[in-house]
Write a structure and sequence with these properties.
The complex is a heterodimer of chains A (100) and B (393). Chain A is elongated, with a radius of gyration of 17 Å. Chain A starts with 39 loop residues before the first strand and ends with a strand. In chain A, strand 2 and strand 3 form a beta hairpin. The mean pLDDT of chain A is 93. Chain A is built from 2 helices and 4 strands, in the order βαββαβ. Helix content of chain A is 9%, strand content 19%. Chain B folds into 2 domains: 245 residues, Rossmann fold; 125 residues, Rossmann fold (3-Layer(aba) Sandwich), CATH 3.40.50. Classes of the chains: A mainly beta (100), B alpha/beta (393). Chains A and B meet through loops of A and helix 9 of B.
Amino acid sequence: MALRAEQINEKTRWQDLTEGLQIYEPATSKLFETGEWRTDTPVWDREKCKQCLLCVPYCPDSCITVKDGKRQEFDYDHCKGCGICVKACPFGALSMKEGK
Amino acid sequence: MPTKTRMSGNEAVAHAIKQINPDVMPAFPITPSTEIPQFVANMIANGEITTEFIPVESEHSSMSAAIGASAAGARTLTATSSCGLALMWEVLYVAASNRLPIAMAVANRGLTGPLNINAEHSDSMGARDSGWLQIYAENNQEVYDNFLQAYRIAEHKDVKLPIMVCQDGFITSHAVENITLWDDAPIKKFVGEYEPEHYLLREDETMAVGPYAVSNYCMEAKKAQAEAMKRAKKVILEVAKEFEAVTGRKYGFFEEYKLEDAEYAVVAIGSVCGTAKDAIDALRKDGVKAGLLKIRVFRPFPAEEIAAALKHCKAIAILDRAESYSGNGGPLGAEVTAALYRAKCTAETVNMVYGLSGRDVRVEDMEKVYEDLQKLAAGTISYPEYPYIGLRD
C-alpha cells in the first residue's frame, strides 16, 4: 500500500513506494528542507527595510512570506542562500552572512 | 464474421490501431515503419478514427510527446524503426520508469552502419534493458494480434509498463500476406477503455510525475519496476487466453513447433521462424527430429519456461539477428544459454548470427543449421567461436 509523502522516509520498503515515485498530493516540497543546502545566509535589517516587497517575487523558493502587506522573517527551512534577494533590495536592507 | 483478406504488416498494425482508436499518436517517419503513421493520418483525415496525431520534429520528440500524453491520461502510441528508436533512447527509460503504458509499433531495422534500411533486430535488442515489454511477431497475422493484445498487457494494474510490438522490417512490414481480421465489436470489447487511476488531467487530484529521487530511494523504485516486469508474465498469459476466446488464436511466451520430441532445436525470433518451419517439415520426412522454439515475448524474458521446453534436446542453435560486438555472441544467445545453465541443461548449444541488414536466410540455410546441430551432438564439430550463417569467408 503506497504511503503519503509525509510518511515516506529512508526506511520505507520498496513495496510501500508509489509506482514511478509519483506524487498524488500538492505542496510536498514543504516537507523537503532545502535550507540544509545553504552555505551563506541572507539577513534582514528591519530598520533599513521600507517594505517595498521587491525581494518577495525575486525569491526563487518562495522563502519570503508576506502578511498584512508586510514581509516577514525568511523561511530558513527552505532558503538555499542564493543571494538574489540581496541584489534585488534597493535599500541595503538585506545582506549575506557567511555560514548557516 | 472474421474477414479473410491480404495486407502488409504495417497495414495490419494500422488496422489494429483503427479498431482500438487510441487517443494520441505523436510520430516521426522512418523506414520501414513510416507507413504506420501515414495510414493512421489517412484514417484521421477520413474521419474513421478520432486519434489526435502530433507531427513532431524527431523521434526524441515523438517519445517525449507520448510520455506527456500518457501521463496526462491518454491511451498513447507511436511507431519507429532503427535510428529513430536509437534517438528515443533517453526517453524510453523515462517512459518505463514513470510506468506509462505507451504502445510502440517497431518495424525492426538495423542500426547504422554501414548505412542500411533492412531487417535486423539491433534496434529493439539495443533497447532490451530500457524497461519496455517486448513482443515479436513471425508474420502479419501475429503482429496484428500482438498489437491488439498490447494495451491489455501494458495497462494492467499489475504491470503499467510501455510495450514494443515488433516485426521484421520489410520482410513482414511490407510483404503482403493473407490475414484474418477480427470484427470491430468483439475487438473493441476485448481491448476496452483506458481508465487510469492517476493521471495529470484528473481534476480532483494533484499529481507529480517523474520527481527527482536521491540514492536513498532510486534502488527501491527500480526494484518495484523490475517486479512489475516479472508480474507481466502472468498478465501476458491471461490476456492471451482471453484473446483466444475471442479469436480462436493461441498465444504464449513462445511457440513450440514440433519441439516436444525434438532432438535438435532452433531458438529464434521473428520471420526466420517461418523458414525454419519449412526446413523442419522437410527434415522430419527424413526422420530427423528437428524442432523450433519461436520467441514471442522477449521482455519479460521467460527463462524458466524456455529452459523447460528445451531441456530434453541434444543440441540447440540460438539464432540472433543482431551482432552485440561483445565478442561473445548475440543477446538471445546470451540469455537462452544462461537460462539453460541455470536449469542444469546439458544440451550442446551454439549461438549463430544470421540475417544482418536484411541478408536473406533460405530454407537450405536452416537445413544446414540442423545438419550442424546433428554433428555438434555427435561431437564431430565444435564451435570455438560463434558462427555467422551465410557469411562469405
